[in-house]
Amino acid sequence: KVNNLESGQYLSILIGETENTNHTYQLLITNYSDVKQRKQVNLPSILDEKLAYILGFYMGNGHIMRRPINNGGSDRLVLAVPHDRPETQQMLIENVKDVFGIDVSIYDGDGAVNNIAINSLSIVEFFEDNGFKKLGSPNAFVPDQIFSSPNEVIQAFIGGWFAADGSNKGRKAGLQIASVSRVGIKGIQQLLIHLGIPSNIY
User: Fold this and answer.
1) Cα distance between residue 127 and residue 100, in whole Å
2) What's the pTM?
3) Which long-range contacts (CB under 8 A, 24 or more apart) does 19-24 make?
4) Distance between CA atoms of residues 150 and 48, nearest Å
5) What would the DSSP string read from start to end of 92-120?
6) When comparing pLDDT for 173 and 132, which is higher?
7) What are phi and psi of 132, to 5 degrees?
């Protein structure tokens, strides 16, 4: 967890801290259900820790799949979880249930991963309407709403991204997040600075 980082895990210069915000960022509300896909969903009005964790993991290792309904496809949010991280898979399943009120489907992905599919047109459009959709992994980013959120929400977002792309390299190298998105990594570093945690990008 980000808040369990120990002093000395990174050697860098801490630029400073930003002023903490004491509110939960309000999201765009989309009040409708999946008429075509016959699925009732909850669309949250606030960005809390559980949604932030899902969003962070999506930025690290997820994608949106759009398919024509008349061709037998479905609109879905897909999260790819490595086989060796069952606790992450379980947390995502529980968070999706708590936040959106629906169950996920799980199927084998490419390589040693399980794909968690959130089959809902409403949730896909909810992500798009709130500016959460990324245009491929190289364009993963930290949404503006996260920067305006309380520290607990920021920590949950970083924790979700770390669960997707992070690793523990030991005391000398510390905790690391590997990403092909330079913008995303710089955004994570800004969040860490806000939390008072030094980091390096290389």
Assistant:
1) 12
2) 0.83
3) 20/150, 20/151, 21/148, 21/149, 21/150, 22/150, 23/148, 23/150, 24/48, 24/149, 24/150, 24/153
4) 9
5) HHHHHHHHH----EEEE-SSSEEEEEEE-
6) 132
7) -90, -15
Tokens standing for residue 117: 């599919």
Query: Tokens standing for 124?
Result: 């896909």
The residue whose two tokens read 């047109």 is: 121
Q: What is the pLDDT of residue 31?
A: 60
Residue type, 164: A
The residue count of the chain comes to: 202
For 84-100, the pLDDT digits (tens) are 999 999 999 999 999 99
Backbone angles phi, psi at 113, to 5 degrees: -135, 155
Q: Tell me the pLDDT of the chain averaged across its residues.
A: 84
Measure the CA–CA gap between 157 and 187, rounded to whole angstroms: 11
